[in-house]
Amino acid sequence: MPLISMEQAVAALEADDVIAMPTETVYGLAGRIDSEAALKKIFAVKARPFFDPLIVHVENVTQAKTLAQEWPKVFDVLAKAFWPGPLTLVVPKTAKVNPLITSGLETVAVRCPDHSIALQLIRNVGTPLAAPSANKFGRTSPTAASHVIEEFENQVGVLDGGPCRVGVESTVLTYKNGKLAILRPGGVTREALAHELQRAGMKVEIETETSSNATPGHLPHHYQPECPVILLNGKSWSPAMLALVENQLGRRFDHVHEIIFPAEAHEAARRLYQDFRHFGKIPSSLIVIEKKHDQNRDEWEAIWDRVGRAASLKFS
Ligand code: TXA
Ligand code: MG
Description:
The protein is an alpha/beta fold. It contains eleven helices and 14 strands. A ten-stranded mixed beta sheet has the order 7-1-2-6-3-5-4-8-9-10, with helices on both faces. It has a four-stranded parallel beta sheet with strand order 12-13-11-14, covered by helices on one side.
């Protein structure tokens, strides 16, 4: 402990324990879906409220369908195009899915992660794994094994799968009344979804519905690092703003770290949580992020969703 081997991870899961596993998006805190003790431990270790449902990780579409009462045709198309990958599909659940996983909802969120270690783990254990991001509730998600160790110290064994390739969480998607709705923007963009639907000759609208009603747990304040984040929408940081921020937040800051994103959104996503953690550890710090006009495109949507929820103050 805390770094563990595949054999140790399988043994821990078989003994109703939880472990941290790598995925392509962020590290997850995994437990067997048929172990109520493990499910309860996930909530306890994360200090997560029971109203926030968990994502179930499956080996493939066939396994996903064993948890679903209905599986819309449009999800066959999308699973074929994007699984394994950062797309979570919300479907009506069967009785087999413990209500602890779904916070009592009649639907369950499922995804097949694009990481060989996660897939191997699910296969070895032989049941799907419920796994929220492996961080304390409301905080920044971990994108490296070292982040999980920092978060939980010796409480949780971690399977190291290297740094996460995507760096932000999966896109959560539901299908209701003939329409798709994005409940949480993430690793798969709206444009990519629309493109695949068009290729399959399916005309389906894609709405966005990110209210806490539709997607419990995806709260207005979430993903927060250990120091405040300031979001500047089309505005530049100036030293004069520091006094304003200090006044509003009621404390002084000795270090202002401006995160300047690289031109490419994928690269920006990969680095975001790492920077949050790095700067958050420096005492008396403030993170400043400027949203530029050319960063409004679809592929930046997940990044601005997370920065917006992490931000303590926004200026435009
Ligand atoms: O990329 C990811 O999705 C990562 C990795 C580990 O797979 N997982 C992740 O899990 O981000 P978590 O627990 O941090 O976020 C899961 C979110 C919930 O907060 C909720 O917003 C949504 O997924 N969700 C889960 N079940 C749902 C359901 N039945 N209906 C609507 N939203 C649901
Ligand atoms: Mg999370």
